[in-house]
Amino acid sequence: MERPIGANSPTGFEGRDPDPAFVAMQAEQAREVEQAMAELEPRLRHLVRARIEGLASFRELAEQLGYGSESSARRAFFEAQSKLALRLSNLRSAGQGPA
């Protein structure tokens, strides 16, 4: 997968100053994601973080976290993603975050 231009820069604005509003919006979105992640049970939170950060395969996580199989870990990951998406959507539609 190709990385977006400026992906090596923490703000995505390599070589120029980022728009403060954009940086604030990114910070708010990060807080929302962290809030939604905190609502997951610890095992799911570990599964999601490990997969998103590329730290372990589904097979490894199934063993580490006590899922019966790789497919069970994969299913739990996608269910957790759905829960996160719903929670973020609810936060945003309630006017508590950016659209």
- How helical, in percent, are the residues? 55-70%
- Radius of gyration (CA) equals 16 Å
Topology, number of strands = 0
CATH topology of the domain at 35-93: Arc Repressor Mutant, subunit A
Q: Classify the secondary structure makeup into a structural class.
A: mainly alpha
Anisotropy-based shape: globular
Q: How would you portray this structure in words?
A:
The protein is an all-alpha fold and 99 residues long. The chain has a domain at 35-93: Arc Repressor Mutant, subunit A (Orthogonal Bundle), CATH 1.10.10. The chain contains four helices and no strands. The longest helix has 24 residues, at 70-93.
Question: Can you summarize this structure?
Answer:
This protein has helices spanning 20-38, 42-52, 58-65, 70-93. By secondary structure, it is mainly α.
SSE layout and pairing:
Layout lengths: L19 H19 L3 H11 L5 H8 L4 H24 L6
Helix pairs in contact: 1-4, 2-4, 3-4
Notable features of this structure?
99 residues, mainly alpha, Arc Repressor Mutant, subunit A, disordered N terminus
